[in-house]
Amino acid sequence: MSELKYLPVTDELFPLLGKVYAQAWKGANSFFSTPGYLKKQTPERKAERFKKQFKREKNLSFYLVMLDNQPIGMYSTSLYPDGSGELRKIYLLPAYCGKGYGMEVLLHILWENREQERMFLWVLGPNERALRFFAKCGFVATGEQQDVAPEIGLVEYKMLLEGPLDVKAAVIRSLLRNERKAHESLLNDMLAHNRPQPPEQTLPVAASAEVTLAETDRLIAGWLKTLCTADGIAGEEDDVSAAAAGLLREYTDEVSVDRCRNVIARLQKAKPGQPEILLDAHLDEVGMLVKKIEDNGFVRATRAGGIDSRQLACQEVVLHGTRRIRGIVMLPAESGKMPDANDLLIDTGYTKEQLEEILSPGDMITAAGRFIRLAGYQLSSKALDDRSCAAAILYALELTRGEELPCGVMVLFSAQEEIGGHGAAAAAYTLHPDQALVSDVSFAWTPDADRNECGLLGKGGMIGIAPVLDRQMTDRLRTLAAGKGIPFQLEVMGGSTGTNADRIFSTGGGIPTALISLPEKYMHAPVEVVSTQDIAAVGRLMAEYLRQPVEKAGGWKEGAESDETVTS
Q: Which of 146, 218, 281, 552 could form a disulfide with 389 if both were Cys (CB 3.0 to 4.6 A apart)?
């Protein structure tokens, strides 16, 4: 689909606006209008009316929708002091309806007016197609109605879309993109099999684009399923690095995987005086390595990362040798005492001779945890630590897509965090951003835990406060979250954070770093649990920080030498 452009209407363009509107209105509404009423919808009359409205109402704007320098539609908006915006009109010429252009125009309108708290419009009652379209896009009927043309019994109904509009636009845009990919795949399949193509106008437009919490959940869950079903313990992240790189390429072509298996993406270069900001989440998961194949055919394993042997008893695992095979972690003896995590036994059912053809010491072993849904927007899977935070970063990129941000933006999906943060340290030394915004999981409360040491699932991200974290960045995060109505919690740590923030902040001459943690239940288990609402909250907070970053974090004074830094 060619790129649409939007041309503001000035005095000389009102005749063209009237012509486009009249033709589009008749195409959309002629089926219920009388001949006499249709006769009144002339281009000249509409152009004159719009011109008078434009001069009279200072908050009213008209735009022509252009495709290849030809007008294909129009829209008009009004913005009001109470934070609401009204979509006064939106029409396409009949030849361009049903092809996805309407969704593109609506996305543009929402994005351009994303600072508004809400958007409303009035839809003609008989136009059921328009009513369905706006309902799919998240607009809700308010129950209000008004007469438009009493002589023909024409009534219109008010529909409302509550903000934040940037979030709603981002979800629609991603869903529309996925729908188009599905359509392209279908058409390619038809061509390959010489089957007739369906008429272009019958292709649906974002069939499931209802902007609700459920759709945000669906968007994030899709990313998480891609990331969590990939495998990658520390030092063996090739599979998940490839999956993450593929997701990042939706936002930039500048994506690379370094020798540490870090995935690095550059989205926007800082202009002079602007800070370069690095967003970090790690990709490696806890797991095990093959240590030895016993004579009885059992596989002796040692842990890779902070895995808890108590959570592995009787769990299914995958052993990655010359091919993938399944195994079960052996049940402990009747005493109930679990063996040390560095000395676990795995039953695969194979003999020693068979295993020696498949496995070698050092081969990766991962949990076989399933990706499942729980109630209340909760998901359970292996490796949600920390791929759920990678999804939060993707959401922040989706929210800021196309914006000219006041900062440079780099993304690091780092390797080897679970064994000491080596990947983040290496990448931070190479990239050396001005600021880093790290995201990792933290403990969510369960009945057996100390409430004072845990966050609550579903209550937003946990903004970290610690000596290693930059106070200016932290305070800005708290201010933004409170001002934008983004749910958040605080996590106070008296020393280090146990995350990549500890390695990044001390890299080189020092990098001011902040931390937003995601509450997670059952950390390092094959059944970790997170909330997609928390992921969305973390992503929104990151997006807001990119829009309003601290200009000079770390307590630097203008023109100061490196030994004159002060603690922020």
A: 281
3-state secondary structure of 487: coil
Give me the helix-helix angle, 165-192 and 384-399, nearest 10°: 100
Q: What is the pTM of this model?
A: 0.72
Sign, CA dihedral 410-415-416-417, equals positive
Host H or E run for residue 73: strand 70-79
Dihedrals φ, ψ of 462, to 5°? Answer: -110, 110
What φ, ψ does residue 322 adopt, rounded to 5°?
Answer: -65, -20
Residue 188: which pLDDT band, with cuts at 50, 70 and 90? low
Q: Residue 328 CB: number of other CB atoms within 10 A?
A: 17
As a whole number of angstroms, the distance between CA 274 and CA 405 comes to 10
For the purposes of burial, counting CB atoms within 10 Å of the CB of 273, is it exposed (0-12), middle (13-18) or buried (19 or more)? exposed
Name the token pair of 283.
């990709």
Angle between helices 213-228 and 384-399 (to 10 degrees): 130
pLDDT at 182: 57
| Residue range 74-126, pLDDT digits in tens | 999 999 999 999 999 999 998 888 777 888 899 889 888 888 899 999 998 88
Cα–Cα distance, 506 to 490 (Å, whole number): 23
- For 115-146, the pLDDT digits (tens) are 889 999 999 888 888 888 888 788 888 889 88
In the DSSP assignment, the letter for residue 446 is: -
The rounded distance, in Å, linking the Cα atoms of 55 and 38 is 26
* Phi, psi dihedral angles at 114 (to 5 degrees): -65, -15
Asked if 315 and 288 touch (Cβ cutoff 8 Å), the reply is no
- Identify the three-state secondary structure at position 143: strand
Q: What is the mean pLDDT of the chain?
A: 86
Distance between CA atoms of 371 and 355, rounded to whole angstroms?
28
Task: Quickly state the pLDDT bin for 37 (edges 50, 70, 90).
Answer: low
pLDDT value at residue 26? 81
What's the burial of 503, exposed, middle or buried (CB within 10 Å: 0-12/13-18/19+)? buried
Which of the pair, 148 or 350, is modelled with greater confidence?
A: 350
Is the backbone of residue 83 left (phi > 0), alpha (psi -120 to 50) or beta?
Answer: left
Q: Are strands 364-367 and 344-347 parallel, antiparallel or unpaired?
A: unpaired
Least confident of 44-53, 309-318, 474-483, 506-515: 309-318
**Distance from CA of residue 304 to its chain's centroid?**
29
What angle is formed at CA 119 by the lines to CA 460 and CA 155, rounded to 5 degrees? 140
